[in-house]
Amino acid sequence: MNDNTTNQLQQRPVDDPGLDEVPSWVSTNPHAAKHAEGRVVVAFAVSALSALASVVAYFAIPLGVQIEIGSFHSSLHNVVFGTTMGLAIFLIGVGAVTWGRNLMDDDEVTQERHAPSSSEEDRTEALVTLSEGVRASGVARRRFLLGSLGGALGLFALPLVVTLAGMGPWPTGRKRAQTIERTIFAEATPQKPIRLVNDITWKPIKASDVEIGQLVNAQPENLQNYHDVEYQQQKAKSSIILVRMDPASINIPASRKDWQVSGILCYSKICTHVGCPITLWEQQTHHLLCPCHQSTFDLGNSGRVVFGPAARSLPQLKIGVDTQGYLIATQDFTVPVGPSFFERDSRNDFKEGDA
Question: Domain check: are 286 and 192 in the same one?
Fold first, then answer.
């Protein structure tokens, strides 16, 4: 074997098979091509109708309606919306595959391998090839196909946009006042106050039972009227802590003189940074530390922030006692509890120096 033969074998280990191109059935049969084009248009059209149906289902079917088929149990809203939306994207794929397999040119080509970096000539050739691919796709000749594809894709985006409605109601001032800016302490009135109860035993808390230096995790008594998801939602806003300090060792602003009972103060348990529950209590300094990001609040000075990323004082709840000596609340927090949000009005927040 001479050197030339060896070099050829190294470059081409097998013989070049060449091209054995067989024309496709559609390319030689105009009737078949027309039939394939119709299938593509139908797939895109039904996809568009399915997308519209998913939008109608999203708004028309109540969330509480259930469907049961044998052991299958689910929300009818989710089943219909998911099925129609899934069918919409499936039919876009069916139409695209049918278009590619039956309507695009199926010329076979070969290309030698090249170095990883492309030359200027290769990049120019790639652009030419791309243009040729656009031509071969038949877009210029079949504009109705392109329009149906655009319509299917455009309408499929519609249910995706509609699902944004599931993120919750628009945060108007009225809606915020009824939801995130309100706790169930708002159900209290001077004539019908709400007792504060231990969050473990649910027993009402007597002022005389709270010792100086003690911290008690508590809840409003009416939280027991809520259940399931609503219970968790209300608990996330109404959780409170009670602390008793020597009145002579704390700073009580004149505007909050009647918010406490013999040194017993009540604050929201929810950190104003990102909403973590706070219970790390330092008796000597009167500081409450959030375990998540170390925000520290001075409960002996209206809950103001003394360290950490929290930007707002811990909301304080006005409390009193009933005729039997139990701690009660007669009104809601004066500011929203928990983390800040864009629309929140912080003008009523307590700041250093406020009376």
Answer: yes
265: left (phi over 0), alpha (psi -120 to 50) or beta: beta
* Same domain flag for 37 and 89: yes
Closest CA to 145 of 190, 182, 208, 92: 92
Give the integer Cα–Cα distance in Å for 213 and 284.
Answer: 8
What predicted TM-score, i.e. pTM, was given to this entire model? Answer: 0.60
- Measured at the alpha carbon of residue 163, what is the angle toward residues 159 and 165, in degrees to the nearest 5? 130
If one counts the domains in the chain, the total is 2
Q: What is the dihedral of CA 297, 299, 300, 305, to 10 degrees?
A: 20
Residue 150, H or E segment = helix 143-162
160, 45: one domain? yes
Give the model confidence (pLDDT) of 16-59 as tens digits.
Answer: 666 666 677 676 777 888 888 889 999 999 999 999 999 999 98
Q: Rounded to whole angstroms, how far apart are CA atoms 29 and 22?
A: 14
301 and 180 within one domain: yes
Pair of tokens at residue 35: 């039939």
The whole-angstrom separation of Cα 287 and Cα 295 is 10
> Are both 293 and 183 inside the same structural domain?
yes
Question: 195 pLDDT band (50/70/90 cuts)?
Answer: very high
